[in-house]
Amino acid sequence: MLTRRSVLLASAAAASVPALAAMGMPRSAGAQTPANVLVFAKQIDDIISLDPHEAFEYTASEIAGNVYQKLVTTPNSDPARLEGELAEKWEVSADNKTFTFTLKQGPKFASGKPVTAEDVAFSLSRAVILNKSPAFIINQFGFNRDNVASRIRATDARTVVLETAEPTSPSFLLYCLSAAVGSVVEKATVMANAQKDDKGGDDLGNAWLKQNSAGSGPYAVRQWKASESVMLDANPNSDTPPKIRRIIMRHMADPSAQLLGLQRGDVDIARNLVADQVKQVEKDPKFSVQYARKASLMYLSLNQKHPILSKPEVRQAIKLALDYDAIQKNIVPTTYAVHQSFLPAGLPGALTEHPFSKKTAEAKALLAKAGHADGFEVALDYFSGAPTSDIAQAIQANLAEIGIRLQMLPGEQRAVITKTRARQHDIAMVRWGSDYFDPHSNAEAFSINLDNSENAKNRTIAWRASWDIPELSRKTLAALKETDSEKRAAMYADIQKEHQQVSPFVIMLQEIEVAVSRAAVKGFDMGPMNDRHSYTNITKA
Amino acid sequence: MSDTATSPAAPPPGGQPAGGRQRPSAMRLRFQAVSGTLASIPITLFGLVLVTFFIGRVVPIDPVLAIVGDRAPQDVVEAARLQLGLDQPLYVQFWRYLGQIASGDLGRSVMTSNPVTDDIIRFFPATFELATLALIVAVLIGIPLGVWAATRQGSWVDQGVRLFCLAGHSLPVFVLGLISLLLFYAHWGVLPGPGRQSIFYEGMVDTRTGILTLDALLAGDWGAFQDALLHLAQPAGVLAMFSLAYIARMTRAFMLNELKSEYVTTARAKGLSRGRIVWGHAFRNTAVPLVTVLAMTYAGLLEGAVLTETIFSWPGLGQYLTVSLLNADMNAVLGATLVVGLIYVMLNLLSDLLYRLLDPRVK
């Protein structure tokens, strides 16, 4: 006879299997993390490789910055200043083509061996020969597979000589060498793990270095599990020994899960909280919130192939129609700041003036002057996720006030980029992150377009907006070649001022990176680029 | 890749074997049916690849973008396009891809730069572990609930089960997941948070199968096993809740059908106990369609549940497939789709075989 009781019993037994199992278990849930281990909660599924000469993604660059050292770097307290990391000093020849670096004595790899000039020359050459995504940062000085052996060489145990193809601004070269692609790997370890490739050569240890490390930085890679976790252990031989013995980065895709982990004490620092969560913990004394300007901009690209958008008055009207402050305050109060020039704040030479604010009457007058007093209709492509979709709606409302009717075209991030690369958009809302810590990274993208034809080789952001600017391109190239650092910075300031007024780019916002840590956790040093986030001085009370 | 672990209610498999004249031998019948199903596998998979391939090519995302990045100069972009064979007509591209998979090579994922086969070997065990536990829980609870509701048709029990199933079926998985995290993890602290293991056990157990609980057992690490099982409890529970609702509903429907049959009345008239009637007769007869429901539920769970995986930071097939799709990483999408297709076909085959075991008429 089937009674209610028997069914209840059967169900209860089934339901209690996990519960019973739970009772006899160690209470791992809710325990604080161990004192010598630091746990980050972060979206780390962007990591493709940990090889510093291949990786170009945010998380991998950050790890490279803590596992490897470069010849030079910039301190986060004064990001424009260059200082030696592995290099003690450097000299520039009179023709600005030969750069001689003398290495410090003291830096050691995790293996215990000292860093030699041979390791440095090998590493920079390796980046050139592998020729992966970030290689162009170094290759733009004229290095290639064939000439690198003679142009980058170790002349003795502590001296490295670089010869550039053309006279080069020292600050430009040094900023580029401070990027993650300038990381120095230990030649002996890397080559011992090199694998033969199908062409009879070897992979210069690329397959091995994807998952391991051979650096002289404060940490060494212990383990990486894709979309799951990264574990770093302190490098016992580092000349800048870290305070925390082990760093664990756990992949947590969902910001709510990151916040819960932080509140439970399972996470020490949460890296991807969204604006309203940050607001929630900001006033809580149990947590401390840290902000750092990120070299990433959100802007509108107005395609100059569009007959109406190509009129200067219309471009200006759009710039004056948007309520930048309201968008920032209401939608992205903690994660973006208003920024209106193509060099993000924190990078050398950045212009931080905001010439544009919402002036509806002025914008309307400009439209009327262009012959569009009744407005017009135009399409806007944007990424359908948060917060971009909310920002797009605010823009739609702002532009409606001056008569511009936006046809909203939400899409996937890569679909929007694909469209702008093919110059098929009218207006597109896009993000752009700087590739390396020099003004030229963004200046090249936003204000150089030497060939506006459909078959152009260099398809910069300016090209994607079909913005034909022979004169401005020349000015931007002149700034690149200026060897006097101060003069160079002044030239970029001028270019940005002109660019703000004439360009078809409505630069709106700069991203802010937010890290929320438990109050007892101190010393996470955040910089303007991902490879400048340093774990060395983190402590847990 | 969906969180809806259901497929439209699958009809009971196979037709009834034609009774009467010249019945072929049972052995031969079984062989024919199995070989027929086996022969249909390549056709099914071919259709799957065909459709996925062409959908992938009309997606408005440039696949080269994921390989060379947004910053590459045009000559690099063109070189990558040529290397991928994207300049060729679609049918040539498709033909090449078929040749490639025929030789067992699923190609390389551009997102992870690994061979797709390696990626799947890495991501699938996590999904397998989660799906299997979820199914076990769902079966152990769902079937008794369904039977119970059927035997008490119209009573408050039946209404209660119906409400429960409705809730389980209609509450979005991410809501259930977050509520579960809030209660069991944040509020009461009885279960661990997102992830597959506690940091204490991170890197302590060697990866052999990729199924963490099994790896811990193989390593003889009881603590790591318990830890992994605890971490499974919430995501598996949430997924089970969803499947459970479906299984209970289907069980109830099948049982009601049987309980109305004349043989049940006969059995009752003969004075058989209610337990014998329900479990020994009626339930045995629902086993055949139920096997199909379970197989399809399991297949649905095995294709990965992207929302559950996201909330619980579970590195499974669902996330892999979604991220690949959003980046037009077609090798990865096609590879993972093929695996999912293969799972469906194999489970279908398995339920066919089970059906033959369960149905005495075929013996």
Automatic annotation (TrEMBL), chain A:
GO (cellular component) term, any one: ATP-binding cassette (ABC) transporter complex
Family the UniProt entry places it in: Belongs to the bacterial solute-binding protein 5 family.
Highest taxon in the source lineage: Bacteria
SUPFAM superfamilies per the UniProt record, alphabetical: Periplasmic binding protein-like II
Its Gene Ontology molecular function terms? peptide transmembrane transporter activity
- Residues in domain Solute-binding protein family? 82-448
Q: Where in the cell is it found?
A: Periplasm
GO terms in the biological process aspect are: peptide transport
Any keyword Signal?
Answer: yes
Name listed for the protein in its UniProt record: ABC transporter substrate-binding protein
Which species does this protein come from? Teichococcus oryzae
**PANTHER family hit by this protein:** PERIPLASMIC BINDING COMPONENT OF ABC TRANSPORTER (PTHR30290), PERIPLASMIC OLIGOPEPTIDE-BINDING PROTEIN-RELATED (PTHR30290:SF10)
What are the record keywords, sorted?
A: Signal, Transport
Q: Which residues form the signal peptide?
A: 1-21
InterPro entries from the entry?
Answer: Peptide/Ni-bd, SBP_5, SBP_5_dom, TAT_signal
From TrEMBL, chain B:
* Region described as Disordered: 1-23
Query: Does the record carry Transport as a key word?
Result: yes
Q: Name one GO cellular component term.
A: plasma membrane
The family database entries (Pfam families) matched by this protein are listed as:
BPD_transp_1 (PF00528), BPD_transp_1_N (PF19300)
Q: What is its main location?
A: membrane
InterPro entries on file: BPD_transp_1_N, MetI-like, MetI-like_sf
Q: Which domain of life is it from?
A: Bacteria
What are the record keywords, sorted? Cell membrane, Membrane, Transmembrane, Transmembrane helix, Transport
Membrane-spanning regions, if any?
A: 31-55, 130-151, 163-186, 228-248, 286-312, 332-355
**Location within or outside the cell:** Cell membrane
Q: Classify the protein's membrane topology as the record does.
A: Multi-pass membrane protein
- What terms describe the molecular function in GO for this protein? dipeptide transmembrane transporter activity
Question: Where is each ABC transmembrane type-1 domain found?
Answer: 124-355
Report the family membership.
Answer: Belongs to the binding-protein-dependent transport system permease family.
PANTHER family cross-referenced by the UniProt entry = D,D-DIPEPTIDE TRANSPORT SYSTEM PERMEASE PROTEIN DDPB-RELATED (PTHR43163:SF8), DIPEPTIDE TRANSPORT SYSTEM PERMEASE PROTEIN DPPB-RELATED (PTHR43163)
Protein's name in the database: ABC transporter permease
**In which organism is this protein found?**
Teichococcus oryzae
